[in-house]
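Page 42, continued from yesterday. The earlier attempt failed because a stray header line got pasted into the input along with the sequence. Redoing it now with the clean sequence only.
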Amino acid sequence: MKRLLSIELQKIWLNKASRVLTLTYFILLSFIALIASIKFDIGFFKFHLAEMGIFNFPYIWHFNTYIAAILKFFLAIVIVSMMANEYSYGTLKQNLIDGISKKEFIKSKFLTVIVFALCSTIFVFTMSLILGLSFSSYTEFSIIFSDLTYLLAFFVKLVGFFSFCLFLGILVKRSAFALGFLLVWSIIESIAKGVLTFKLFPDSDIAAKITQFFPLESMSNLIVEPFTRLSVVKNIGAQIGVENSKDYGVSYLPILIVLIWTFLFMLMSYKLLKNRDL
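This time it went through. Structure tokens are written below.
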């Protein structure tokens, strides 16, 4: 297992484009800290994000994982390119000639996905802890380490999304087409969700119950947007008579759905590779 992972990481690091994208991803993650410096002071209007409580424990776990998840597309390009390069450079065939089975090959790719997701989660955890200890109004131990389920949801989200990208890379063989397919699939899900929500079931929650099983939608449901959870936004909503009954917690049903999709993506990846004439 260690040997397989070492081979994959070397392939990524020796590829200049993949190396740059990976480093860019983690650099951009660290830029979340710069949000604390966003400050406007125009007359009576004062706007300072850090003072709005976005770095308060335990809210910071929710906010940072949601923002960090948006940046996952940088690593998605790396994952798709990683698979496309296997076909372009003939390394897949060479690995099989060298004695690596197709099952071991898929396992090595999945291990890489796990490592990327785990490193991202550890990075976000460390950065959030530092920011929280620097800016949070609440530093009690029990408060700091509450709501860590957002980190679990973040990890599962990345694993599921990267597994989907890996499957597309094997299915399409070309990184540009695989990323295009990902975009098209996202549009298809959005259209289907719109039709179900506004046309077929406009006055019920049936549409939400159906769309929660869509792959990208299930990943999106893991971490709900955190902005309307801020007390400032809630107060504004209360003043204009808008009630907010949204559940911001991490539900275990979306986690289960995404884990099932992850298993299916890896199984389909293996079946494709197994039945394909290389």
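Notes: Strands lie at 39-42, 45-48.
Reminder to self: strip header lines before submitting.
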